[in-house]
Amino acid sequence: MNKLVAKKAFLLLVLACAMLVTVEPIYAKKKKNTKTAKKESPYEKIFKGKKDEVKKGVITLHKIEGKILFEFPLTLQNREMLLGSTVSEISDNGNALVGQKIKKPLHIKFALRDSVMEMREVSNFARRPIFSTSKDESIKQAMKKGIGEPVMEGFKVMAYNADSTAVVFDMTDFLVSDNKRMAIFDPYGKKTMFGACVRRATFKKELSYVDQIKSFDDNISVTSSLSYLQDLLYMGIVAIAYQEPVTVKVNRSFVLLPETPEMMPRMADPRIGYFTSNKEEIADDYDGVKMNTYANKWNVYPKDVEAYKRGELVEPTQPILFYVDDAFPEEWKKGIHEGVLVWNKAFERIGFKNVMQVKDFPKDDPEFDPANIKYNCINYAPIGIANAMGPSWIDPRNSQIINASVFVYHDVIQLVNDMRFVQTAQVDPRVRTPKLPQDVLDESLRYIISHEVGHCLGLMHNMGSSFAYATESYRDPVFMKEHGTTPSIMDYARFNYIAQPEDKDVCLTPPVLGTYDYYAIKWGYTVFPEAKTTEEEIPYLESIIKSKMGDLEYRYGKQQLGYGVFDPTSLSEDISNDAMKAGAYGIKNLKYILDNFNTWLDDKDPDFTYRDHLYDALVSQYVRYLNNAWANVGGFFINEHYVGDPYNTSEVIPHDMQKRAVRFVLNELKNIDWIDNPDVVKNLTFDGSMSRSILKSMSKKILNTKRVSLAAYRDSSAYSPQEYLDDIYTILWESTIKNVEPTESERILQTEVLMGIIRNADPLTKKDEIDEVLFADLKQAAQTGTLQLPANTDLPLFQLFDVYKHLTEQGDADCCVDAGHYYQTANAMKKINEYAGFDYIYYILNTSNNNQNHLYFDLLTRIKNIVEKRKNSGSYATRSHYEYLLSIINDFEKAK
């Protein structure tokens, strides 16, 4: 038994040893095969055997087989970013400018949901941010549910990286697409005739691709080449271009915003001109949603706070650096550099040095890219547009300006040449030339750039600034040397058109910086270390405004948009506090210039090309003088005010000022023939009579009593509609009343005004003077260069509004202004605010106070009686004219 057990045990032991000998090699072999056949990860499969261009930075970018892949760190989830689009190259800059940012940046964040990386929109200008300071928990809960972040795009996760700290997803279709929210075409560019054409662009995806990729510590850039075929339809009907190929390289910048906003937002004040942004607040101390308005400004903060407190000049933590395009003509660069640096004078007064810095485009900096919104650039646009503009972008969380650009179109120099000639050639021989000398060019470009950089610093236009100075001051060499033409370079008070030929050593230009400019920078950029919150800053800011309140040099006059100008003290392209006196001096100068046109220019303009252009500018300048004066009729002095301020919201322009304005303009129109100087116009392009064109255009404004009626309603001592129409009768029918032969100009005025009287006298006649006045204003703006439209272009009313809105805001006035928010149409005009507001001033649609049909009917009767009395006197032309007037009146009476 024991032997049997021992034998079995021995056999089992032998079998076990045999198994060990057999299994071990098999196991070893399997182990070896496992090592050689290790499974590739999804991350490795993406790149295996493919050429991968990698850029490492805040986000790692992969360009592989025509695709752009983001390797996105999971630590960046829910970090807020700005996504901006900048044109970096284009086949025709009439469609958009190199450096132009057509749309405001998108405010976004990325967040992973399951296997999809979502791009969410944090805020936009159409969805105003709202926050709550209420202690009510139910409000907080309601806001969590009702105010979310919509998903804009979703990107399927392709893989995690090796240590699972980042995910990879494909951004190609997003970045190589026709995304309307990142538009690349300027709808108001020269190619569309500044908005007159409708663009229909077909995106050609098969011809579009990812071009360059860059990644840095706080931003990434992807440049895509996008191709289109476009049709341009004038008035939406006539094809100006058909299936025209266009290729654009557009840079998409993803800029990482700081986790916590760097700058404390500053509450805006409507009595000083800063661009603004809004947030709504639900608060326990206010019934209803409260609107908070903040000033757009840079984060200028002292490096050494204690030294700043002691009043020492200190460096800022972050200077504002502009890079100047190397494409600019070399002769322009000196004035451009100076235009940036002049603002240091204002910052030095509030304790900062070297805030403004300027450099040429660097040649040896691999990170520099003018299309990246990390860089502030002054861009040259080689295109025939007489303009410049200075837009900027903000961090929507705190209204901090984070990027700004200046665009200088080539023909801005032509605009300067025109203005210098028609406004100052009577005293300055240097400007009587098609090519300005270097010293004039330098001072002119310095002004243009400093004005646009002012916009980039957050400053709006101050069109009321030049009203601070008396007319005669502009002929005083001592006063002009100290002050220049205006207290603010943010005004459109270009050059001294009041100075007469006999005036010597009178300054003709705006100041380097004006008193208001220093004041505005003090309000916007002074640091108050004691204030720890936005609300705690308000008393300090209020004291700055109160210290200058009542002094016209520090008054902020809003820009006026729309089809009417109600405040004659806040006009563009005017100087002095009396438009009639200034206009009389200006017109005297225009006559002098016109008389010397050929003498000055025969040897410089042999083919009359320059004179042909200048003559149009001279005519436009004359019309500007008339319009500036006419703005007083039914006008108001308008201000924003708080309790205790010395200004009222609105005060009617004094009676005598309105009356003088009517007499000035009508007498000018009666004696307008000088502008058709035969010695000049005989050599120019044949274009009919400019004087007759002006007569017909201005006559449409003469009988608009709505403004006068409203002013008289607000102030019983004001110029009344009765006196207004009496003056029209007395002045325009003066020759008829005195039985003197009327001039041809008078006959035209009498005819045009009579037709207007009939329209107003008959309550059944369709009233269209609103549209006519609007059209006349905008058409004139187009011809004067204020509004860039082709001359003699008759656009539909809505398109004129659209173009006017865009060019007054984007062209020069508006940086960071949401055009849709401010834009008003004829059917939705705003009232002048009776409370603090930050809007522009628009025309008031006033019908209820204009009940003057009886006055028009009485005026018609008086005209009929005097014409009946004189119908058989005078020359054949005069008698025929009177018979025609009577036939118009008789036809009206029969039709009743």
Q: Count up the helices.
A: 27
Distance between the termini: 146 Å
The overall pLDDT average reads 86
Which structural class should the secondary elements be placed in? alpha+beta
Keywords:
896 residues; twelve-stranded antiparallel β-sheet; 37% helix; 18% strand; protease; Zinc-dependent metalloprotease; metalloprotease; DUF5118
Plain-language structure description:
The chain has 27 helices and 23 strands. It is α+β, with helices and mostly antiparallel strands and 896 residues long. Among the domains are: 1-38; 50-259, no CATH class; 272-279 and 292-462, no CATH class. Strands 1, 2, 3, 4, 5, 6, 8, 9, 10, 11, 12 and 13 form a twelve-stranded antiparallel sheet that branches. Strands 16, 17, 18, 19, 20 and 21 form a six-stranded mixed sheet that branches. Strand 12 (219-234) and strand 13 form a beta hairpin. Helix 15 packs antiparallel against helix 16. The protein is globular and about 115 Å long. The termini are far apart. The model is unreliable at 13-32, 766-775 and 778-836 (pLDDT under 50). Residues 41-89 form the DUF5118 domain. Residues 1-28 form the signal peptide. Residues 435-737 form the EcxA zinc-binding domain. Residues 128-303 form the DUF5117 domain.
